[in-house]
From TrEMBL:
Keyword annotations of the record: Glycosidase, Hydrolase
Family named by the database record: Belongs to the glycosyl hydrolase.
Ranges where the Glycosyl hydrolase family 36 N-terminal domain occurs: 27-261
Catalytic-site annotation from UniProt: 451, 517
Species in which this protein is naturally found: Microterricola gilva
Gene Ontology terms, MF aspect: alpha-galactosidase activity
Reactions it catalyzes: Hydrolysis of terminal, non-reducing alpha-D-galactose residues in alpha-D-galactosides, including galactose oligosaccharides, galactomannans and galactolipids
UniProt protein name: Alpha-galactosidase
Length: 715
């Protein structure tokens, strides 16, 4: 960190530099965010700032560039405002000044703090800009109303600038069972917005909003991306002004009156994260490293899961689920999770959400005998909940209809026959919390699958009808935190009809996400690699599903289903009771292979090759010390150009020599495979050859793959 006359600050950590201008009492203005530039001396820092100042032509709005991380209309900014709010129509055009700046080190990174005031408006603002040890950057702001009259905050959006060389925007969309579909577009003048207005990020949520050099890929092309660590309503924007200023920004979408500050009250924005890299793998690596450095990052091996959902759906009974648990344990499963269908009257998805007691009609002796059996078999016991939801056909809705969100037009339209329980009512919160606490305690539950299947639409808090979406998100966090505090070691999975709630806000309270309800490996390959831009493999639930996918009805060989599930936190979602012995043995082999390699899979660097053949994929995980790696070469379509040619194995140490062996944890070779000569014996090559020239790939049928196990031979 360096300060020049108190006017320029350089933050450095993890291969990232941020250089910010903090002169004239103004808010911080980032003039560089990206590659580490080394420790710059005072003269160089001053020169960087000088050389970053633009020419201002006639008739241009002479906005004093560079632009602060909280852009302000009062300073001439004509784009999205950093702070929107007012006191009944006054104090609406803030202008913060008299900023004082300090810089500190924190956990191996560096943080700049800027404290500014708008004396005329009686508002104060603190901004933190931090570069974490991983090189991931983040910022947040705290606004305080220093005056007697209340101040209504309508939005607070912070921005990271990106250079004009970033000409392409990448973001993601999706829907149920098809999350994280990428879309690319030129970075045009204007604002490209991705909004979540359903009280959670949602299935179509972009998760990351990225901008990079034309054609950036996984291995090359500078690229920057932002993410908001918040599980509620939000907006992410890629905004380019005619002046050439362009930035990536985000903030909460705050509904009317959700944040109204009385005298002395404060609002703190969620963290806005920013990552960059030469290629997406480096960008993703900064997120992974950050998450892996969290104190709550799971340190023990991720237990292999058997989930009952696609195995039996609502058809629960003790004998069937005990038999399923026995089959799973015999194959090496370590955690048995009872999904939806266990609570009062829940025979379908039409009833009972909110009634969190075990259904005596289906479980006459309760869930204890099953939980006990699961533990006898050496497994942990997990249970599904959907704590924020309610069915109109439930005891809870009949007793407390006022706990259902209502903005003035009743309960609103159902989705999956359900409505949202307003946890802003302390009684509703306690009802759910007490029900969950009782079960977690009685059944010694090790794992909760926490679902969320309806968007919050007109989510009004009764009786006023005022918006309750923001409080709902905070109450969900609170409930997760209370559970974790009361039951140390309890793990929680964030599921929202699949990948509808994946963000660093909820991840701070959970241990796993469910990227999609689609277990079809053809789709999972894409969903997982894009979700993996932020979420490390050990947090991504990846399950071996049925031969015929329940969501796409494609049929896939077991090896392909298992290989695509290998790369995350492995689970099985098959009805093992209906599978033949050969299938069970193969599932067992894949489980054993995962157990053998999960140390590598859950700690190594995730890599992808940029292959010219769009019908092929090469993914891998490389050990941090570069001594070992696993890769999968997959074919997704039948392309015109064939055979596929050579594929590179990225991430290896160029100076070392490696043995590459094909490995077949299931059946020996995919049916129909035509293999190049090296594949019959394995091959030894320098890392630089594997990383730049590559090795000939096998010709495979669509939706088949081959694994390569790579070990350094010079150690
Ligand atoms: C939606 C989830 O995404 C599924 O995995 C399953 O838990 C069902 N809900 C249960 O209703």
């Amino acid at each position: 960190m360096t300060a020049v006359d108190g006017s320029v600050v350089q933050l450095r950590a993890g291969g990232t530099s941020i250089i910010a201008l903090v002169d004239a009492g103004r808010l911080p203005r980032i003039v560089h965010w990206g590659a580490d530039l080394g420790e710059l001396d005072d003269a160089a820092l001053a020169a960087i700032v000088l050389s970053a100042l633009p020419a201002i032509g006639d008739s241009a709005v002479s906005y004093p560039q560079p632009v602060p991380v909280l852009p302000q209309l009062a300073e001439g900014w004509l784009g999205r405002p950093g702070l929107s709010g007012s006191s009944d129509g006054t104090r609406w055009a803030p202008k913060f000044g008299a900023a004082t700046t300090s810089v500190d080190t924190r956990d191996g990174g560096q943080v700049l703090r800027s404290d500014a005031v708008d004396a005329e408006y009686g508002l104060s603002l603190s901004i933190e800009i931090e570069v974490l040890a991983s090189g991931l950057a983040r910022q947040r702001a705290t606004l305080v109303n220093e005056r007697g009259e209340s101040y209504r905050v309508d939005g607070l959006e912070l921005a990271f600038p990106v250079p004009v060389t970033a000409t392409e925007v990448l973001d993601f969309t999706g829907r149920w069972s098809l999350e994280k579909v990428p879309q690319r577009r030129p970075f045009h003048i204007g604002a490209w917005l991705r909004e979540s207005r359903g009280g959670k990020p949602g299935l179509e949520h972009t998760m990351l909003l990225a901008a990079g050099e034309a054609g950036f890929g996984f291995q090359s092309g500078a690229v920057w991306a932002v993410h908001l660590g918040w599980s509620g309503n939000q907006v992410l924007a890629a905004e380019r002004m005619p002046s050439g200023v362009q930035h990536l920004s985000a903030g909460e979408i705050i509904l009317p009156g959700e944040v109204t500050l009385a005298a002395g009250e404060r609002y703190t924005s969620p963290w806005l994260y920013g990552s960059w890299g030469n290629g997406l793998d480096e960008l993703a690596g900064r997120f992974h490293e950050t998450i892996r450095a969290w104190p709550q990052h799971p340190s023990r091996p991720r237990p292999i899961i058997l989930n009952t959902w696609e195995a039996v759906y609502f058809n629960h009974d003790l004998d069937t689920l005990s038999a399923l648990a026995e089959k799973g344990a015999a194959l090496g499963v370590e955690r048995f999770v009872v999904d939806d269908g266990w609570f009062l009257g829940r025979r379908s998805d039409r009833t009972s959400l909110g009634d969190w007691t075990v259904d005596p009609a289906v479980w006459p002796t309760g869930l204890e005998p099953l939980a006990r059996r699961v533990r006898e078999l050496g497994m942990e016991f997990g249970l599904w909940f959907e704590p924020e939801m309610i069915n109109l056909d439930s005891e809870l809705a009949r007793t407390h209809p006022e706990w259902i969100f209502d903005a003035g037009h009743g309960a609103g339209i159902p989705s999956r026959y359900q409505h949202v329980l307003d946890l802003g009512h302390e009684g509703a919160y306690e009802h759910v919390r007490d029900g969950m606490f009782a079960l977690v305690s009685a059944l010694d539950i090790a794992y909760i699958k926490w679902d969320h299947n309806r968007y919050l639409l007109d989510a009004g808090h009764s009786p006023s009808g005022r918006p309750g979406a923001r409080v709902q998100t905070l109450q969900a966090y609170r409930l997760m935190a209370e559970l974790k505090e009361a039951f140390p070691g309890l793990e929680i999975e964030s599921c929202a009809s699949g990948g509808g709630r994946i963000d660093l806000g909820v991840l701070a309270h959970t241990d796993r996400v469910w990227p999609s309800d689609c277990n079809d490996p053809h789709e999972r390959l894409e969903i997982q690699r894009w979700t993996g831009l932020m979420v490390p493999p050990e947090y991504q639930g990846t399950h071996i599903g049925a031969a015929e996918s329940h969501t796409t009805h494609r049929i896939h060989p077991l090896d392909y289903r298992a290989e695509k599930a290998l790369w995350g936190h492995l689970g099985v979602e098959l009805n093992l009771l209906e599978e033949d012995e050969a299938t069970l043995a193969t599932v067992g082999s894949w489980i054993a292979f995962h157990r053998e390699h999960r140390g590598l899979l859950h700690s190594g660097r995730v890599v992808h090759a940029d292959l010219p053949n769009a019908a092929t994929r090469l993914q891998g995980v490389v050990a941090r010390d570069g001594a070992e790696a696993l890769y999968a070469f997959s074919v997704t379509e039948r392309p015109a150009n064939w055979p596929p040619g050579r594929v590179t194995l990225p991430g290896l140490d160029a100076e070392r020599s490696y043995r590459v062996n094909p490995v077949f944890p299931g059946t020996p070779l995919p049916e129909g495979a035509v293999v190049p000569p090296w594949l019959l014996s394995g091959v030894t090559l320098p890392g630089c050859v594997l990383g730049t020239v590559g090795i000939e790939a096998p010709s495979l049928d669509p939706d088949t793959s081959v694994l390569f196990h790579v070990t350094a031979v010079d150690a």
